[in-house]
Amino acid sequence: MACSGWGRQYWKCDEKDGPYRILYKIHPDLSYNQRLIESAMEEIEKHSRIKFEERYNQRCYLQFTKDDGCFFEGVSNCSLRISLGMGCTDFGTVLHELMHAIGFEHEHNRPDRDDYLIIHQKNIDPGN
Known about the structure:
two-stranded antiparallel sheet; 19% helix; alpha/beta
């Protein structure tokens, strides 16, 4: 079963039992980091029911590119992109961006964040 990108959940899967296949393509500019990217995917596979598989001619997939910066971007309903530009090619950064691609967000974006965060106004520099 394959998962296709859609909306805020990013991936829609056809079956509950998994494993959920996420198709991907690594741009040739990142070929020297292919093993690093695969290691991060293997880490997610080890702890989930997700299986990353190389895309051949399918329309919907996750693409790894080498643009300016480190980021995940939902380009359209079925084309998602992870940019791994200069300084972005360490294991932690690749794993971080992959986590965004499978639907994880930063903790400060959680709807219940105010229940757990305390902002100490006196510690904020007034010049910023």
